[in-house]
Design brief:
Elements: E1 36-37, E2 42-44, E3 47-54, E4 57-58, E5 68-69, E6 73-80, E7 92-94, E8 99-101, E9 103-107, E10 116-121, E11 127-133, E12 141-148, H1 162-169, H2 171-177
Antiparallel strand pairs: 1-3, 2-3, 3-6, 4-5, 6-9, 7-8, 10-11, 11-12
Helix pairs in contact: 1-2
Length: about 180
């Protein structure tokens, strides 16, 4: 049975380029896309952000300034790091249709760099997480992945089942039934 998402106990997920358009529309997207992973990934606030890169066109001959060379395309991807599917905060919403997409297309002059972690503190105590994309020759692009309302909130936790929790905190259970 084919699944469209990974679950917590699954060994992971992968994204296959060239199968479907990841954005609202794709200008140079066909059934056989030359798109490849264009950068490292950033994991922040339960989201993974990375870039794909698709070279367009080619040049031949002895003069590199002539020919029909197209502008390369970069796709910024954002998705849930466990399931591999877009969710609110880990996707791109295009208004007015409010559909959630995995990627966003942008023009590029070279393969993109990895998104940079961006953590900002608000004047009223909130902490905002996201990625900052700095492509050559383009304005910086920010992708927000979430926020916390307080500086002192716990940042990390581990989901465990009841038996594992009891083994950790109950000395009588730990002595008899814990591994």
């Amino acid at each position: 049975m084919d699944k469209c998402r990974a679950l917590n106990g699954d060994p992971g997920w992968f994204y296959e380029y060239g199968v479907t358009c990841p954005a609202k529309s794709c200008a140079a997207f066909g059934t056989c896309s030359p798109e490849k992973t264009g950068s490292g990934a950033l994991v922040t606030f339960g989201c993974v952000l990375w870039n794909g890169f698709q070279p367009v066109g080619a040049s031949g001959g002895t003069d590199p300034c002539t020919g029909t060379v197209g502008a390369p395309i970069a796709y910024g991807y954002a998705t849930d790091y466990v399931s591999g599917v877009p969710k609110a905060g880990c996707g791109y919403t295009y208004l007015p249709d409010t559909a959630l997409y995995r990627g966003q297309e942008r023009a590029s002059v070279s393969p993109p760099s990895a998104p940079l972690l961006r953590i900002t503190a608000g004047a009223k105590g909130g902490v905002h997480y996201g990625g900052l994309q700095l492509d050559p020759g383009a304005s910086p692009e920010a992708k927000s992945t979430g926020e916390r309302s307080d500086f002192a909130e716990s940042v990390y936790w581990l989901e465990v089942d009841r038996q594992t929790h009891a083994c950790r905190h109950d000395a009588t259970s730990a002595a008899t039934s814990c591994q």
